[in-house]
Amino acid sequence: MLVALQWAALVAINRLGYAVAEAVRLPLPGNLVGMLLLLALLSAGVVPASWLRPGAPFLTRHLAFFFIPITVGIMRFGALFARSGVAIVVVLVVSAAVGVCASGFTSQALGRPRRQVEVPT
Amino acid sequence: MKSLATAFGIAVTLGAYVLSRVVAKRYRSPLTTPVFFSTPIVICALLLSGFTVEHYQPAKDVMVFLLGPATVALAVPLHESRRALLNDLVAAVAGLTAGSLSTLVVAILLAKAFALPAVVRASIALKSVTAPIAVELAPVVRGDPTLVAAFVITTGMIGAMFGPGLMDRAGIRSPLARGLALGTISHGQGTAQAVGEGALQGAAAGIAMGLAAVLTSLVAPVIVPLLL
Known about the structure:
The complex is a heterodimer. By secondary structure, chain A is an all-alpha fold.
């Protein structure tokens, strides 16, 4: 019952996010606007995080479930992967490596130098 | 008949998901992450029973209903880890900006060099955005939500598998920087990996995942058409 209420609240905030994005013509997805709205409510102390437990953590813990039905759609793209699968993997690996290094070096160079971890060798 | 097909689609998907969680508990590896492990099982089950993507659609619509609310719920862990960001705001924002932009540009340009179709190039640009937001962003840049989801999940695995080793070799040792890089590039799966490294890494990764999604949502509709 409690979980159903918490989910209903999250559904409402999600709908509100889409409505706001539409009304203000924000270039952001509605669910992201909903997330930012909830973040603002939590940060302002209007909504304590405890009101959303355990319904919210349950959904985020099982977030991966929702992507199974979406990726099942790659059934339609068999020919593409047979033809260009290797090129796609190369693009994904190289761009990920560049991004990890760019992000890591930038924040390490600008961050406070005192914190270091020993990297196991 | 149609409701029976819907029930079958949901049952197969739920079953494959539960199986992946059980297997992942015994063998923790990027190969046992739920989406990578379960999707082939569901596809095989559908093919064997003569289902097409169209037959599966009603079941899919039911299951993804809670995806939006689940995305909203991400605000709770984000709120709880905000301190890690505020302590080192400039470094964090600069790092996740550099990571998000460079990975997006390199992905599109490389895809172009390989002469991949336009819908693939647009979709691959979003591969470092956390899946619930990337799927919504796909139509905005003329990508395909399914391709985006597949690329996002593969990128999550790549970063979680090779990211820490790459940073060891490159001399990236600051916990904040390591967490940020993993969250920025490999979103949820990178965050899970960062949590394993330490609390600060995990918090930084969670925040980076959220902010990188906001940043990419703002810049992708402008940059992607220019580079396509």
